[in-house]
Amino acid sequence: MPQIEIRPSLASDLEQLLTLERDYTTQYVRQIERENEEDETLTITLRRVRLPRLTRVAYPRNRQQLIEEWSRCDGMLVAETQEQLVGFIAFSLQKTPAALWISDLVVSHSLRRKGIGQALLLAAGEWGVARDSQRIILEMQSRNDPAIQMARKLGFDFCGFQEAYYPNGDVGLFFARSLR
């Protein structure tokens, strides 16, 4: 992993953060299958499905939506290396349950899969613990296989979904784990 510094974002960082490439490529998608039983049991299965080819996926929020999201969030951390911003994480405190909700996690395309996203996520978790958060919840698109793989690697469990969650109509998946 490159030498990085994680720090709170500054207003002067925002324009540079908006230049980071947020799109990603994947060859997998998660399909949600719901099964209603006669005894009123509902079973939800999240199945990983291979796509016929590598697909480029647009980030679910455009520039203006990101700016609006950032104005409402409770905190934002950035990753910096050699005086260059290479990633960010935006989050909000949820009172019920006492959770830290991660809405955005982006790492510069050329530095992905080098531990920067994980470092940002762990730093955000520490921020949440200092503010009495009990859990951390990640939201992501059902097509964001790289983020889902990272969440699973870090001990997050699938905890729900919402259809048409994002402004672009994509399904939102939610993964959570305890901070204590």
Offer a few descriptive terms:
4 helices; two-stranded antiparallel ribbon; about 20% helix; 9 strands; about 180 residues; globular; alpha+beta; Aminopeptidase
Report, as a whole number of angstroms, the end-to-end distance. 26 Å
Estimated share of beta-strand residues: 35-45%
CATH H level, superfamily name: Gcn5-related N-acetyltransferase (GNAT)
The shape, in one word, is globular
Radius of gyration: 17 Å
What helical percentage do the residues reach?
10-25%
Number of domains: 1
Tell me which CATH architecture applies here: 3-Layer(aba) Sandwich
For the biggest β-sheet, the strand order reads 1-4-5-6-7-9-8
Tell me the name of the CATH class. Answer: Alpha Beta
Q: Extract low-pLDDT stretches.
A: none
Largest sheet composition: 7 strands, mixed
Q: In total, how many beta strands?
A: 9
Order of helices and strands: EHEEHEEEHEHEE
Quote the average pLDDT: 93
SS-based class:
alpha+beta
Number of helices: 4
By CATH, the topology is Aminopeptidase
